[in-house]
Amino acid sequence: MTSLTRKIKMSTLHLVLVFALFSRVYVLEFCQNGVSECTADERTPLDGVRSRWNASVSNLRRDLDQFIVSCEKLLEAFPADGADGDSVRTVKNCIFSKSTPTPLRGPLRLAAASQDVIEGILDVDMAATRSDEFLRYASGGRLLPGSVPLAHRYGGHQFGHWAGQLGDGRAHSLGRYTNRNGEVWELQLKGSGKTPYSRSGDGRAVIRSSVREFLCSEAMHFLGVPTSRAASLVVSDEPVTRDQFYDGNVKTERGAVVLRLAKSWFRIGSLEILSQSGEVDLLRRLLNFVIEEHFSSIGSDDPDKYLVFYSAVVNETAHLIARWMSVGFAHGVCNTDNFSLLSITIDYGPFGFMESYDPDFVPNASDGEGRYRIGAQADVGLFNLEKLSVALSPVFSEKQRKEAKTVLGGFAEIYQMRFHQLFKAKLGLLGEEEGDGHLVAFLLKMMEETQSDFTMTFRQLSEVSLEQLHRKNVTQMWALEDLSSHLLFADWLRTYLLRLGRQQKDLDRQRRMKAVNPRYVLRNWVADSAISKAEKNDFSEVSLRHRILSAPFVTHETAEEAGYAARPPPWAKRLKVSCSS
Ligand code: AMP
Ligand code: MG
């Protein structure tokens, strides 16, 4: 084992690592505390995402004036932009610019709030969200005690090309909050007005995109996918003009602000801009900060620390994209500025959950060439990680540059291994048998050819009994009925049943499969009807969706009545989402 491998191994949790020895690539797996997440077919995604507020929490804050955030660490660590004000400009030699949110024009309404975030992360009593104070804090009308609002300077590769300075054009970082568990969360407002990075934009976000970000980031968390979180959604009457499909049909919509949280909002583009502008000292400072804050097991005096950091991001990004695939999620805009250094899902835009299984599914109507189609996400991840290695090259030695290439060379294998594990769990397969990969690939091919629904095929396979499967009795199970129309279905089923026959009792299989195959995801048509109502100030459907998607692995009567697990209505296919938000 090389010393680099040892370091990576010591420094990362649940890590799959890749190292080169005699020009062969080896993949190792290990998990902390001997708990093998990586091979644990029995692990449910809910293990990590249990609702925080179910635990009885006392001393929740009611007085928001006592809710204090801190900006000192960021301001001490980095030079702030010398210029003041929000005039659009090219910014150099800083990570942040001071920028004040522009209050949303009232009347303001609270469209949604996440109890799991408000109480479970922010230690605030939900009752406090019903106050006018909260509306103002959560929409940029009043600053939290301790807040020095900042807009982050970053760049990025957009649709394959270097786009130069981007930065937060409509998001303000309010500061960091340390909660009762000692976790540090960075709070942001999105849609809170212009910053030096707004370019030609108005700094606002409309209701439809804000409802989608609120619902989807919360839904992803409860699906077990690493993500930013959303605390609240405030809507206003402020007119915002948008040409939704870039076809000249300009409409007046209304502004909204999401209060969102992440352990860090730094992205690949945060490093790229520094590297591209030759600001190498600042690049090193930002890297040291991120490593110290979020990769605490990497030693600050380790001469390979940037390489170890890079390996961790490669590994975790492979895991993240495999998770996206396991729930049929297409991000929609996988630019380097939308790829987090902590490998969490950020910047929800024209995302989509695939309905009929189709590797060419493109959620974003503006992505004509399908660059970010669901089946290309791993390739795009590789592209983005290559850009990250380019951004890091000024701090790498020649030898480290070569080693970074080797690390990146292991990405596909890590991704495929994780994908295989996740899909094996989706099929309820325990252990490892030779034909398992084939069983998964065969099923996906049949799903593609029969256009079977991705979510419900796996869900119904979880709910159907072995006895029913033996009798090929899938009536009343619409997705399985579609699948069973395939000529080779009986062949696949025979192999699957033989494989299942060699393991535990059926009830156990069903329990495991139901815990990894959701019954509900945020289908576009489901989001759409909630948005239409929200635009008329009726937030009941947003709140219903939010409740259902906070427990997507159990059956909800109201969701069933509304048809969320039924065959999507024919008009659902005609819905489009674009980058305009
Ligand atoms: P996104 O597609 O939301 O990730 O945004 C890409 C870039 O455009 C980021 O720098 C955003 O901050 C910026 N941006 C998007 N919409 C607006 C807007 N309405 N006003 C200002 N900046 C925006
Ligand atoms: Mg973005």
Key attributes of the depicted protein:
alpha+beta; two-stranded antiparallel ribbon; six-stranded antiparallel sheet; globular; binds magnesium ion; binds adenosine monophosphate
Please sum up the structure shown.
With 581 residues, the protein is an alpha+beta fold. It is 37% helix and 14% strand.
- Average pLDDT figure: 91
Major sheet details: 6 strands, antiparallel
> Ligands bound here?
adenosine monophosphate, magnesium ion
Uncertain parts: 10-48
Distance between the termini: 49 Å
Our count of helices gives 20
Alpha carbon gyration radius? 24 Å
Strand portion: 5-15%
- Helix percent reads 25-40%
The shape is: globular
Give the tally of β-strands.
Answer: 14
Explain this structure to me?
This protein is of the alpha+beta class. Among the domains are: 35-65 and 98-267, no CATH class; 422-516, no CATH class. Helix content is 37%, strand content 14%. It has helices at 3-11, 72-77, 115-118, 132-137, 207-223, 268-276, 280-294, 305-326, 377-392, 398-409, 411-426, 436-450, 454-463, 466-470, 478-484, 489-501, 506-514, 524-534, 540-549, 557-561; strands spanning 16-21, 24-29, 96-98, 109-113, 150-152, 155-158, 161-165, 171-178, 184-190, 205-206, 229-243, 250-262, 329-330, 352-353. Strands 4, 8, 9, 10, 11 and 12 form a 6-stranded antiparallel sheet that branches. A two-stranded antiparallel sheet has the order 1-2. Residues 10-48 have low confidence and may be disordered. The protein binds adenosine monophosphate and magnesium ion.
